[in-house]
UniProtKB/TrEMBL annotation:
Transmembrane segments: none
Residues covered by the GST N-terminal domain: 1-75
Name this protein carries in UniProt: Glutathione S-transferase family protein
The GST C-terminal domain, residue ranges: 79-197
Domain of life assignment: Bacteria
Family annotation (CDD domains): GST_N_GTT1_like (cd03046)
Xref: PANTHER family: GLUTATHIONE S-TRANSFERASE GSTA, GLUTATHIONE S-TRANSFERASE-RELATED
InterPro entries, per database record: Glutathione-S-Trfase_C-like, Glutathione-S-Trfase_C_sf, Glutathione_S-Trfase, Glutathione_S-Trfase_N, Thioredoxin-like_sf
Pfam family, one: GST_N_2
Length: 197
């Protein structure tokens, strides 16, 4: 059985949501970054960590891709044009949304105080809004690529939720409606309630 190490308030949410969507059983081990349980599996101490038997996989996107390919769900087949578009979309979201939010987090509380540049946040908010508008223009249907949900939707929705928590305005109406629909999914709600269980 899969084991997921991390927390619902971290990128581990993506992995937990994926597993709920595809109906695969897992154990959720609530663990913070650099905790003993995590560093025993990932020397960097970063979460999430997925174990599949004796195999350890790190990085949320790598984990999502592994699960999607292994179970042939929430992905287009490797070697297809649709998969190339999916991969391009996934990398765009990581570069243009996730990286912007992570930069804000680093300069807000992650880096040692003497290395933080708080004045960068307004620029990051502007960049995030611009990039979100571009993503909305690429959206092809109820999901980012049209009628089929993929791992890109999980990452994008997670970034939209992260933006709210980081006080990044999400003013694009199309993306707000998209995020609301994604949050209404049963699998999403089940993950939200994990820490209450």
């Amino acid at each position: 059985m899969y084991k997921v190490y991390g927390s619902v308030t971290s990128r581990a949410f993506r992995v937990l949501w994926m597993l709920e969507e595809i109906g695969e059983p897992y154990d959720y081990i609530k663990a913070g970054p650099r905790s003993e349980a995590v560093t025993a599996l990932n020397p960097s101490g970063k979460i999430p960590v997925l174990t599949d038997g004796n195999v350890v996989i790190t990085d949320s996107t790598a984990i999502l891709t592994y699960l999607a390919d292994k179970h042939r769900k929430l992905t287009f087949p490797a070697g297809t044009i649709e998969r190339a578009h999916q991969d391009a979309l996934t990398h765009a979201i990581l570069d243009e949304l996730d990286a912007v939010l992570w930069t804000a987090a680093r300069h807000g509380f992650v880096l040692p105080e003497e290395h933080r540049v708080p004045d960068v946040k307004p620029s990051l908010k502007w960049e995030f809004a611009r990039n979100l508008d571009r993503l909305a223009d690429r959206m092809a249907g109820p999901f980012l690529q049209g009628e089929q949900m993929t791992i890109a939707d999980i990452i994008a929705t997670h970034c939209l939720n992260w933006a709210i928590g980081a006080k990044f305005p999400v003013e694009n109406e199309k993306m707000n409606a998209y995020a609301k629909a994604m949050r209404s999914r049963d699998a999403f709600k089940r993950v939200r309630g994990l820490d209450d269980a």
